[in-house]
Design the sequence.
């Protein structure tokens, strides 16, 4: 048990009572709860948190519903065994339908922003241009979005990171330079970062400017109500309007729903439960969906991993986890041609490494003993820009739980093979003594020529080649054409007049970069518009 | 694995039958009906919990700790301490951590794992699927390693996914334990105190 009084870090949530914050833990309720508000938001991540602050700033009353627990800096002990079950969807073991892709998604107050690695990129111009041209999103040019990026960058202290990269990231930069491809520094949303390396387990120093320490406290200061451990079951709707949101309390472990029901009646309803949760909620609600677009075109930035043993100490678990990237294999390929990929370095901690490494017994143990000398790279593939990259589909099972089916197509595997080749080449150029493309064969190579030959012949197929994703996007695309988009360009669901979607599920393709800043800026712009539409009406008037 | 399946058609039948819960529809396929049915009658209650009900690991299948206990020393060979005092402690803590991890998974995943452990606890299914002829407590590390290797390389997605689940659970359970850290040179998280 951490003693808050002795900690050098101030936890803003310890002053919650003093500040008059209204926080309801639905797992502790004795009876059913009914709430009325101007706006109810499902999900407290990048979209929901951003919207909550902007709507309360406009003078609207807001209820924020979060399925996960409220965990704060005092709880963040930098231990994977605590963090994954407490802060991630399905204990960080969420999988696609065929179990071929492991998905890392936050489930806690602050959502993914509480556990992400702080990488902040504006939506690439090529992505926005593609949306304008292909999905009719005329108002979404880079110029039109620029003020919204600037606003959220200011709000979340997104800025260049001036500290030297840790050795894991420095090795990526050095190796890339060795093969003649450019890298650049990643901007981060931090204030007074201690450079510890544990962003993925919740920032223990509150340096990371996640929703947990920025917009959600901001909304609570203006009277918002936060409900934790409550699962949104469905939007009740009739005559093209949502009339209520029905939720169930979760048990204290967050596994089963309890008998407690929570009903929220609002003027406007916002789904911001992430790109798996939001489509699933709409499907459970049986919203009108005449063109069957809800849950379609879900994108993941499918990600593969290459591990390298280095001759020197890397300590890949230490220091800001993600500070160097290369877009060379995005920028030099036509965006609608063969799939391109972004290169980054991940933090490497014991559990994450152990479950990622193939093999067992002595082979596995030998690589684990290399941990302090490991340099690990990841390649994130840019999906959704090609007819052969239609993404996945979210449906619901008999329990109403989401299921994501994401077929890994030859188009994706082609990119995986090129990415393995690139990463191995970079790693050898940086001086690696041994490189292992993460693959069931578990083979490692001590020479670049051998690695290249092996990668060219590697069997690439679901489950033989582990694939992961930390970026779930799409599934409720926005756009003017209801035959292709679930949501209009203002964020309103095409077929229900007071239902909005404000999260990464809006994206009609993947982003081609870590998506947090794209979600912040887009949802800020849409929330501002929604606030403008609601404020002139008399507050608290019910239809 | 393909030839294994040809030799033991019951393997495919039982696993598909149990893991997809369409037992009787598929049980007649490929001649494994008797085995599947025998399994079904024995385990129906335990293996098919009411949706949403609490199903702790211990109730899903009382054999689960022995199964995990047989797998742990094989997956973690070279990682577990070897001295006779620390080793059983490490093994037991790993088993407990697996059980705790399972209880935190969503209901559907708990049901699937419950079915897997129930199946492996049923001797005819264990022999057909894994080739391990002794009970789990008496199983040799060689036999266990052989079946894990076969499952990992299997063309049958269900066996491969069962292997992946065991791999993920056991390695997370051990490497989340600070006892595992000295051997891999990880000093643990830094102290925050100023």
Sequence:
């Amino acid at each position: 048990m951490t003693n808050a009084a002795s900690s050098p870090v101030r936890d803003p949530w310890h002053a919650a009572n003093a500040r008059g914050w209204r926080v309801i833990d639905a797992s502790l309720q004795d009876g059913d709860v009914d709430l009325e508000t101007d706006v109810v938001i499902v999900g407290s991540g990048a979209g929901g948190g951003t919207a909550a602050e902007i709507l309360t700033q406009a003078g609207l009353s807001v209820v924020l519903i979060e399925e996960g627990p409220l965990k704060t800096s005092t709880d963040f002990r930098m231990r994977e065994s605590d963090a994954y079950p407490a802060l991630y969807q399905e204990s960080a073991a969420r999988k696609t339908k065929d179990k071929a892709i492991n998905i890392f998604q936050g489930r806690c107050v602050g959502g993914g922003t509480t556990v992400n690695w702080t990488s902040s990129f504006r939506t690439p111009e090529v992505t926005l241009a593609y949306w304008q041209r292909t999905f009719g999103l005329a108002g979404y040019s880079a110029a039109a979005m620029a003020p919204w990026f600037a606003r959220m960058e200011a709000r979340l202290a997104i800025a260049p990171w001036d500290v030297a990269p840790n050795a894991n990231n420095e090795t990526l930069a050095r190796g890339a330079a060795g093969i003649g491809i450019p890298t650049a520094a990643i901007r981060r949303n931090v204030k007074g970062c201690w450079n510890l390396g544990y962003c993925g387990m919740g920032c223990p120093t509150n340096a990371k400017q996640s929703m947990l320490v920025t917009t959600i406290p901001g909304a609570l200061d203006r009277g918002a109500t936060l409900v934790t451990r409550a699962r949104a079951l469905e939007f009740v709707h009739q005559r093209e309007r949502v009339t209520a949101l029905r939720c169930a309390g979760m048990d204290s472990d967050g596994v089963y729903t309890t008998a407690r029901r929570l009903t929220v009646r609002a003027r406007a309803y916002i789904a911001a439960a992430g790109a798996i949760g939001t489509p699933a909620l709409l499907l459970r609600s049986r919203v009108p969906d005449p063109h069957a677009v809800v849950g379609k075109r879900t994108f993941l930035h499918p990600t593969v991993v290459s591990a390298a043993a280095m001759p020197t100490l890397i300590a890949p678990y230490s220091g800001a986890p993600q500070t160097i990237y290369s877009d060379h294999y995005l920028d030099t390929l036509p965006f609608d041609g063969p799939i391109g990929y972004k290169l980054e370095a991940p933090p490497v901690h014991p559990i994450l490494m152990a479950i990622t490494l193939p093999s067992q017994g002595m082979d596995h143990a030998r690589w684990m003993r290399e941990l302090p000398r490991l340099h690990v790279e990841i390649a994130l593939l840019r999906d959704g820009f090609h007819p052969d990259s239609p993404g996945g589909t979210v449906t619901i099972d008999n329990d109403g739980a989401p299921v994501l089916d994401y077929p890994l197509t030859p188009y994706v595997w082609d990119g995986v093979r090129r990415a393995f080749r690139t990463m191995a080449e970079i790693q050898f150029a940086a001086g690696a003594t041994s490189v292992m493309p993460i693959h069931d064969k578990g083979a490692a190579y001590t020479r670049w020529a051998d690695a290249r030959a092996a990668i060219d012949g590697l069997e690439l197929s679901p489950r033989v080649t582990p694939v992961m994703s930390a970026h779930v996007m799409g599934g409720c695309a926005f756009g003017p054409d209801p035959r292709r988009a679930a949501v209009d360009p203002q964020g309103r669901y095409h077929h229900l007049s007071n239902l909005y979607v404000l999260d990464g599920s809006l994206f009609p393709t993947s982003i081609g970069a870590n998506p947090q800043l794209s979600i912040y800026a887009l949802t800020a712009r849409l929330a501002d518009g929604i606030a403008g539409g609601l404020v002139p009406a008399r507050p608290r008037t019910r239809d | 694995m393909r030839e294994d399946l040809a030799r033991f058609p019951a393997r495919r039948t039982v696993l598909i039958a149990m893991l997809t819960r369409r037992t009787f529809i598929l049980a007649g396929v490929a001649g494994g009906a008797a085995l599947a049915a025998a399994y079904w009658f024995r385990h129906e209650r335990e293996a098919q919990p009411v949706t949403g009900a609490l199903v702790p690991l211990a109730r899903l299948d009382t054999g689960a700790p022995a199964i995990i206990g047989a797998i742990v020393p094989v997956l973690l060979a070279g990682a577990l301490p070897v001295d006779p005092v620390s080793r059983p402690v490490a093994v037991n803590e790993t088993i407990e951590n697996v059980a705790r991890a399972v209880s935190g998974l969503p209901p559907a995943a708990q049901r699937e794992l419950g079915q897997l452990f129930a199946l492996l606890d049923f001797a005819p299914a264990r022999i057909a699927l894994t080739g391990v002829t002794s009970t789990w407590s008496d199983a040799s590390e060689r036999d266990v390693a052989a079946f894990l290797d076969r499952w990992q390389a299997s063309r049958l997605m269900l066996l491969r996914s069962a292997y992946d689940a065991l791999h993920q659970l056991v390695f997370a359970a051990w490497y989340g334990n600070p006892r595992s850290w000295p051997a891999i040179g990880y000093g643990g998280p830094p102290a925050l105190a100023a």
Summary: Residues 2-178 of chain B form one domain. Residues 1-60 of chain B have pLDDT under 50 and may be disordered. Chain B has eleven helices and no strands. Chain B touches chain A through 46 residues (CB under 8 Å).
